[in-house]
Amino acid sequence: MADWIRVLWVALAASAPLPAQFLLTACMVNSRAYVVGARLPASGLSVRDAAGIWRHTGFNHPLVTALDYDPRQPDTLYLAAGNGCIRAANRGRDWRILTGEEVTELRDVAVDRLTPGTLYIAHPAGIRVSRDGGASWQDASRGIPRKFTMSVALDRTRAGHLVVGTETGLFFSADGGASWTPAGAAGFQVMRIQQSPHDPKLWLAATQLGGLFRSTDGGASWENLGAIGAGRNLYDVAFDPTAPERIAVGGWSVGVAVSADGGKTWTARNAGLPRPDVWSLAFDPARPGRLYAGVHEEALFVSDDAGLSWRKEGLEGTVIYRLTFIPAGGGR
């Protein structure tokens, strides 16, 4: 082989994109151009493939608010939707509703990584749990005074430990939802709960009007982090899996704010975004500093420098309720 051909081949090989380790999945509704009575544009579940192309998958659905998956079977997704909990197998293509008509307007879903077949859903009437993969469900909100529940998160290191966010604050359970203890953020609607991928004892919760709350004991007790988001609606919080101290929050009239010191200080990162109204955030677990943000009825935006600069990344005209990275190893 001639030297110049060998050099060219090596250069091309070095610049070729590596196979994707994760697929970015969005729960979204295409709402900006919609008028009542018209056919709904592609909405529900969209997946960004290894080539960077967004593809709508499964049914056209007006309200899918959240998703989760079991790492042992990542090609099967569980969706929190307006008409119930949906199992979306074959990487989201094949849908089956797991709940009855009495359970609607789901807000969140969480799969227990430590107990196969166990999943929880949050909805206006409380929390329900299935211990057989969605075949049957039981109420798990006894002891919570006001039932409306927006968020649910499970401890990945301790079986039966979970935290839920209700319209009156955070509640903690150490027995799989059989009993609950008030944990913090009293009087505030909790929108999103996240456990740190670096320290399982560190949790964060985004609220409406109350700002950001932090737990350092695995969710049993919480403290307010100060001025970030106070008086505004925070809709999402994200840890960077590649940087232990980096955290992002997103919300209405807040846009995106990033902390590089574990939440001690925050900096607005909205230069390049069309408006400061953000529903969802996600850090790329395979690319340090890459941050995605769903901007209300504008598009998905991506930053390669933790929010210092942004560019549009598709899904124009949508509201993106949740962004989740799914391991690319399962399914096709």
Can you tell me about this structure?
By secondary structure, this protein is mostly beta strands. It has a single domain (31-327), classed as Methylamine Dehydrogenase, Chain H. It has two helices and 28 strands. The chain has helices spanning 3-15, 89-92; strands at 22-30, 44-48, 54-57, 64-70, 73-81, 84-88, 94-97, 108-111, 119-123, 126-130, 138-139, 149-154, 162-166, 169-173, 181-184, 190-195, 203-210, 212-215, 223-224, 230-239, 247-252, 255-259, 267-268, 278-283, 291-295, 299-303, 311-312, 318-327. Strands 16, 17, 18, 19, 20, 21, 22 and 23 form an eight-stranded antiparallel sheet that branches. A four-stranded antiparallel sheet has the order 3-2-1-28, with no helix packed on it. The two termini are 37 Å apart. Mean pLDDT is 91; it is low at 1-19.
Write the layout of secondary structure elements.
Elements: H1 3-15, E1 22-30, E2 44-48, E3 54-57, E4 64-70, E5 73-81, E6 84-88, H2 89-92, E7 94-97, E8 108-111, E9 119-123, E10 126-130, E11 138-139, E12 149-154, E13 162-166, E14 169-173, E15 181-184, E16 190-195, E17 203-210, E18 212-215, E19 223-224, E20 230-239, E21 247-252, E22 255-259, E23 267-268, E24 278-283, E25 291-295, E26 299-303, E27 311-312, E28 318-327
Antiparallel strand pairs: 1-2, 1-28, 2-3, 4-5, 5-6, 6-7, 8-9, 9-10, 10-11, 12-13, 13-14, 14-15, 16-17, 17-18, 17-20, 18-19, 20-21, 21-22, 22-23, 24-25, 25-26, 26-27
